[in-house]
Fold this protein.
Amino acid sequence: MRIACILTVFPSVTETFIFGDLRALKDSGHDVGLMHFLDGSCDIWQKDARVLRENVLIGGPLVSPGVFAAFVGYLVRRPIRLIRTLLWIVLHRGSSIRGRLKTLLILPKCVQFASECKRWRADRVHAAWSNHAAIAALVIQRLNGTPFSMASHAGQDVFRDPVMLREKVAGASFVAVCNRATFGRLLEIADPEDHRKLVLLSHGVDLETFDVERSAPQGSSPRRIVFVGRLAYGKGIAYLIEAARLLHEGGVEFRLDLFGDGPERAATRESIEQLGIADQVQMYGEVSQEDVAGALVQADLLVLPSELRHDGGREGLPNVLLEAMAAGVPVVASRIASVEQAVQDGVTGLLVPQRDPESLATAMRRVFDEPELTHRRVVAAREMVRESFDRKVCGRRFVSLFEETR
């Protein structure tokens, strides 16, 4: 089957979970073609992205002679269908003004994607996100008649500024949803007759990479604490830095390694210096998935202090949380809906209230001060990931969705 997959940006350092799904399609023998709105500018190519780079059909920018030519082509060959499709999307009443403007900006590119799918003779379209990528899938379906599926995660595509979600679910063959919070939200939005299309399916963890023997025993001093994620609003990095200060003042010897980059990088560095913990905290910036695996092998604790955004955005089920569990690393995380899908407080990890550095610091100390209980939680978490989040099993299920709905 020829499957055209639509991404927002390619390459990307952070979307390893999406690349893993597409890699599963390719490894199963399907012909995968990538189309993306924007060209990524990252210096690091993640492992699965390196494999997929040869499959790019068309990329950015949003405006180009090729975009203009494709638009004119449909205007000449199928003017009524093109105009009806564009008006249907732009005039949709359920979308915010901001959502409509963003959609209007990408529509010409969506028409170019439709032209490329026709040239490539795509049998199927898959939108890797349920926001702009799924708008493109809708356009392609209405212009070419090509069936599509989509994936839903969390954040802008579902909670913050959704556009035509009900229509997207109605038009899709299936919707792969990676966490329970998003699944519940889509049940509220979608028409009841479309609920059968929603499939709760994790991206899974590459156990061959992360479920390995540790290179350093846990419990050695200083304790190594790890954070992996974007330095951005919603990740709660400021609360982790404050909790680190409390640990330092409490006499705990530790080293905090921050892996990731983002708009709050400068503010984070400034906060570290102002709080007097520059000797305890190291910022590494963006790193490869292999580097993350190497860091987890030596870590004593992974901390994810995520928070619900005031605009409705939220964390999904972070793959790095599952990766740490697979690697035998204790986890402390904020008590938010999707995280609770994997972290059962006191059983597979520790949960704390969001935006609460005191509780965060207390939980981190518990990990270090209760070695026997910590070990029990680590064993339970590792077994849970092996049973429920094996990427090979999740990948086979993902591929089967395409074959069952072809």
The chain is about 45% helix and 15% strand.
